[in-house]
Amino acid sequence: MASLLGLVSLVTVSLVSVLVFRAAFLYKPLPAPKSCINMHNHDNISLSQDPQILKRFIGALNIPTISYKVHTYDAPEMTKFIEYIEKSYPAIHGSPLITREIVANYSLLYTVKGSDPKLRPYMLTSHIDVVPAVKELWDSNPFKAVIKDDGYIYARGTMDAKHLVMAIFEATEFMIKKGFKPRRTYYMAFGHDEEVLGLDGAQEIAKILKVRTKTYDKMEYVIDEGLVISETKFPGLPYNIGLIGVAEKGYLSVKVTATGAVGHGSMPPPMTAIAKLSTVLSRFHANVMPSFLGEGVEREMFEIFAAYASWPYKLIYSNFWFFKPIISYVMSNNPTLNALVRSTTAVTMVHGGTKENVLPDSAWAILNHRIHQAQSGKELMELDRQLINDDTITMELSSPINEPGPVSPYCDDCSGYQTIKHSLLQVFPDTVVVPSIFLAATDSKWYTNLTDSIYRFSAISVELEEMKCFHGHNERLSVKNYEKLINFYHHLIINSDEPILNYKSKQHDEL
Ligand SMILES: CCCCCCCC/C=C\CCCCCCCC(=O)NCC(=O)O
Ligand SMILES: [Zn+2]
Ligand SMILES: [Zn+2]
After folding, report:
1. Any domain includes 312
2. Parent domain of 439
3. Catalytic residue among 194, 248, 384, 466
4. In the annotation, is 483 catalytic?
5. Would the pTM of this model clear 0.90, i.e. be above it?
6. Is there a single domain that holds both residue 348 and residue 426?
7. Do 211 and 324 sit in the same domain of this protein?
8. How many distinct structural domains can be found in the chain?
9. What InterPro entries does the database record attribute to this sequence (predicted)?
């Protein structure tokens, strides 16, 4: 007995020593994060100095460029939006350096010509369409933007994603007016049907650019809508967290149909199409997919956390291999963090009867899956089949399968990642920047042939709680965030002109 106790004590002491050693020596504490690139000697763009900037944003939000389903969107509003952009940005549309192409009738592709053809171009991208909004559920009209006393602009598209479209235009207009001539060519691309898979817009833009980029080999990088800066702090980390999406989850929608006896609502049989379907659907929320925490880029995320965290959290983040089950459990209890670690299933549409006293012969539902990098669409279909476990229920694809995309590089010398990171830090200092997986789908999935370096990042800082505003009610963005977003692109455009820097050694020199 005594020797057993001795052995247990020895193992415990050794384990604790390993955990403490790793925390103390492998992840040396780092000072507050800041950019290694000195602030450029240029003006910041200020909303108080130019009130027209906000007016232009509000005007763009008030055009209901809604996508409904694949190939179906409000075309006249899209045309109105294009005209609005042309009218709002005279310097861009009059510049000899800039050409505009209207792709597939409603998407926009701009080329801002750089002076050095040897530099590979990069691309700033977003989308002009928005999802529908149920007016009655909002506190104000979703297509009549208002700035409220809390300092927020409320309207559909403020977070997803007209803020990016307009901020890219504002930064470019500002710079062109000041006589800026880029060295590196850049594209500005705005699809018109991103919310319904981007088949008409971004897919066509990609085809055009594919022909062009042959001349340059591949693009330097592409930045699209994506993850944000989280103001919600991680335990033990006193900083905001800037998450750059280096990969995108896959996308798959499955239509599940159950059939049953038709008849009169007054004499229901024990099982009907709707009863069968609802039994099956409830299983999808009771049985979540397995956690893959640690098999994706989150491992690097926790290693970076380890360097900035205070004790005792430093001990946890430094020893991911040991604390993984606890971290996974905690993350699984928050919908946003849960989506980082596993494939997800959401039942997003259900359709059954058409008359209140008639038993319908069939009922269907859509399972909307987001596929983690560690799984495939085929695997998820198989898991669905096992969970349904009923041969009378049919399953068919209701969207093409988009497998999870490749992981873009995020090393110390990866110019696209580092240029975005340092532009972020110039505008949002004291932010810990980490690579992460983007939870949803973007138009950038069409651009994978154009570059190996695609980053999904929206430079706004928000609380995790605000994630429900994406596609939800009372979507909003603070005026302060909009100003910073414009300045982020302003910095990004300037920094992208620099030759590829050795960011790592520079960082050490200047810290
Ligand atoms: C320390 C970890 C904190 C994690 C914070 C995660 C922050 C998540 C940030 C953004 C999520 C945005 C989701 C909105 C997606 C918008 C794109 C879209 O609608 N695409 C279409 C689609 O996917 O259906
Ligand atoms: Zn979007
Ligand atoms: Zn969206």
Report:
1. yes
2. 52-246+406-496
3. 194
4. no
5. yes
6. no
7. no
8. 2
9. Bact_exopeptidase_dim_dom (IPR036264), Pept_M20A (IPR047177), Peptidase_M20 (IPR002933), Peptidase_M20_dimer (IPR011650)
